[in-house]
Amino acid sequence: MSREYRRSMPLLPMSMVMQLTELSARQIRYYEEHNLIEPVRSEGNRRMFSLDDVDSLLEIRELLEQGINMAGIKKVFDMKTNRVNKPNILSISDSELRTILRDEMQQARIMKKTSLRQGDLTRFTQKGK
């Protein structure tokens, strides 16, 4: 069972989440209405919260204490969601990276300047180590 799966399991009832987050039931329902958390409903239609939900509620409380309004909190959560769900668009092979670095170093040599990366690369090319 992966860590992500365990953290997303709905385990905690509203009363426990209220104690952990020091938020009222009304506040928690309000954040649910705004889709900042998504607790699962039990067969008896009771909200069950995951550890991820608790973390989100604590983050909401912290952002509110810093003076950020609900619109700002929604933007923060949207940015977080987009970053997690967005695949890494920039993908470069080793040979492409070597070509870029070689071109950069040749350009620096032509301009009679030291490449910014040259210092970083010397630790990999030093003899005797």
TrEMBL record:
It comes from the Bacteria. One of its GO terms (molecular function) is DNA-binding transcription factor activity. Residues 11-79 form the HTH merR-type domain. The keyword Oxidoreductase does not apply. Gene3D superfamilies: 1.10.1660.10. Keywords: DNA-binding, Repressor, Transcription, Transcription regulation. This is MerR family transcriptional regulator. The lineage of its organism: Bacteria, Bacillati, Bacillota, Bacilli, Bacillales.
